[in-house]
Write a structure and sequence with these properties.
The structure is a homodimer of 362-residue chains.
Chain A: H1 9-25, H2 31-37, H3 44-56, E1 60-61, E2 70-71, H4 73-83, H5 91-101, H6 108-123, E3 126-131, E4 139-146, E5 151-158, E6 163-169, H7 177-191, H8 204-211, H9 215-233, E7 237-240, H10 242-246, H11 254-265, H12 267-274, E8 284-288, E9 300-309, E10 312-322, H13 327-361
Antiparallel strand pairs in A: 1-2, 3-7, 3-10, 4-5, 5-6, 8-9, 9-10
Helix pairs in contact in A: 1-3, 1-4, 2-3, 5-6, 5-13, 6-13, 8-9
Chain A binds a DNA duplex (30 and 30 nucleotides) through residues 28, 30-32, 42-46, 48-49, 51-52, 62-68.
Chain lengths: 362, 362
DNA sequence: TGTTAGCACTCCTTTTGATTGAGTGCTAAC
DNA sequence: GTTAGCACTCAATCAAAAGGAGTGCTAACA
């Protein structure tokens, strides 16, 4: 063992071999296996000694005396931080991302969901997409669409292009199209460009006065609008590929499987998981096993990427997998997705400002 | 045994006891258990003889010689058809349905989904909600909402109040509100009240001519509208409480659990399951075990209710559970939900026609 | 003739004990 | 510092034994 407990070259090699073998096989790795498979010119006895050292140092564990070694969280940590092999670009992923981004980016919610789907499909782990709730935002547009004699549709578009609509049924009075158009105009003038929190049921008198439409009709419509606005504020949570994990031998034990099923349905727990990368401006956050406290995640690792567009975090995509997940693959997939989406968003941002200028000066 | 292979009173009693015990315990039921628990004044030996008869007649099976009896599909069938005890109304369910229906029914999709959620919650089985795809329908309303200099929102409302919207990004030209309003008017005039299939990209020339808006802008908007229309046609499939089933001891075997997970992700299989009640005007359809052919559903039963409003089937809600499900509970829950929703829809229908008349004559 | 007590028999389930084998730690020789 | 060799540990596997739930059959009984 090196004097100061630092890992020398050889120990790193052996640690890496153990981890990669374990990631592949999910079986405790013995010294003989390492000596044979990862030909490093050492006998199993030597490797055995080194492995004993690695265990003493906390990088490996032993399920029981006569078993091979298994990486500890600390072991995975140095593996992730120092030993990750760069991964060849995955053409399937690249293809999926291209077709994801071939249209325009309009709604972040849908983008995050679709991206999470791709990530889960590519990694075969579970992907959790989360969009950030907006506390303060501007209503960009609002419209009341006449549908029939008893129904109108209230449409609200928020600052980030999140769109919500609600069908409103009006009883008692028949609706006339010109009435709705007038009302729609008034509402649009009153609310568009205004911060969402300024909208309240209190404005009903003003609306009635300005539009000349009866209170009975305006009330349910404003109700619906407020409902839409509230929905715009919500962050969304998307869980993709939850069933993927259950295929892994980790979950041959039905209790573990049921535990996971409970976890995956617990929205609060998922939000906590997805928040792992919060505050982080760029780069991924890797949380291994129970590293971050008693959250019942001892057997899982999470890799989170946050998406920053225009200097603002619009959401995150996290991969949830077993601690022995294929970190290289997960990290490279998430990094690639992040890079491509942020790049595209930047391009579109530029286009927009250019066009807007052109539009303004016309 | 009675002469003609018919089930006499006593056999029915014993069959019922076996089935109900098995539904509760998921353990093969022995003659001693029946004699003791369902005090019917007979010794276990007599019951044993009767059970042997019931097996010979195909109502019961024996996993192996020295085990108790288990109901066969045929056994469940007579149980469901002839022996179901009427169930006391469930106040929890009633409460949930009341709050589900306290608002107006506007969108069937959302209603079916919410109702399926309640059913799955109440029964603790898996509920599958399906709305019927519309092959032919009328566009009730259409509108283009100006959002900002580069975006408009296309909104389409279908006959059944299904609403779809798509954000459209316009490059190259700045949008002016009056342009959009004019375009929206033209589109609304052209498409509203028209059958969906009449809308095609071919109409672009007409739109350009009538609205005076440039082709570059009209094209992506019509594209978006066609997209929305296509989405309106789709039937939706909602799976609620899929994880519920995994709690049952049926799935202690991880292979069975994984099989179920595959099943529940297979949209085509689910559609087939949910179609069980197709064509049926009213009443529920109960499919027990593999009754209906080789669909890999041997261990499951399905109870389906279809929802008919205005003489048209708008969708179905099915409960998927183990063959030994609590049929009484499932059937009564589904019947109650069906009754309440159809009743409410009828009421609203009446209201509407009354109001529409009033509106027309004004 | 239908019912029931009694008993031998079946066969799954659980327990127990022996065996196997992978892997270790230690020691001694190189 | 490395390695061959060996005793030791302990989970996993397997077979045999014990236990037990439930049956079918027979004979006696009302």
């Amino acid at each position: 063992m090196s004097r100061d407990g630092e890992l020398d070259e050889r120990k790193l090699m052996i640690l890496k071999a153990v981890i990669e073998d374990y990631i592949e096989s999910f079986e405790p790795v013995g010294s003989r296996t390492v000596a044979k498979k990862y030909d490093m010119g050492l006998s199993s006895a030597t490797i055995r000694n080194e492995m004993a050292d690695l265990e003493e140092m906390g990088y490996l564990c032993q399920p029981h005396t006569s078993a091979g070694r298994v990486p500890s969280s600390k072991g995975y940590r140095v593996y992730v931080d120092k030993m990750l092999a760069p991964v060849a670009e995955n053409p399937k992923l690249a293809g999926a991302v291209v077709s994801l981004l071939e249209g325009k980016i309009v709604e972040y919610h849908k983008l995050i969901k679709a991206a999470a789907e791709i990530i889960s499909e590519m990694t075969q782990y579970t992907a959790i997409g989360m969009t950030k709730p907006k506390e303060q935002f501007i209503i960009k547009a609002m419209q009341i669409v006449p549908v029939d004699l008893n129904h109108v549709l209230a449409v609200v578009v928020a600052e980030n292009n999140v769109t919500k609509s609600a069908m409103v049924k009006i009883d008692g009075e028949a609706l006339k199209p010109d009435m709705i158009i007038s009302l729609s105009g008034v509402l649009n003038d009153l609310f568009s460009g205004r911060p969402a929190e300024s909208i309240s049921i209190m404005m009903i008198n003003e609306v009635v006065k300005l539009s000349g439409v009866s209170r009975n009709i305006v009330l349910p419509i404003i109700d619906a609008i407020i409902d839409c606005v509230k929905q715009c504020e919500h962050g969304e949570l998307y869980t993709e590929g939850a069933a993927n994990l259950l295929k892994f031998p980790e979950f041959d034990d039905i209790d573990k499987a049921r535990e996971f099923i409970d976890l995956i349905q617990d929205k609060d727990a998922l939000k906590k998981i997805a928040k792992g990368s919060d505050g982080e401006k760029t780069g991924l956050v890797v949380t291994i096993g129970g590293e971050n406290g008693e959250n019942g995640l001892d057997d899982y690792s999470v890799v989170s990427a946050s998406y920053n567009i225009d200097g603002e975090c619009i959401g995150t995509i996290s991969v949830l997998g077993p601690t022995r997940m294929d970190y290289s693959k997960v990290i490279s997939s998430l990094e690639y997705m992040q890079k491509m989406i942020e790049k595209k968003a930047k391009e579109e941002g530029k286009d927009n400002s250019a066009e807007n200028k052109k539009g303004d000066s016309e």
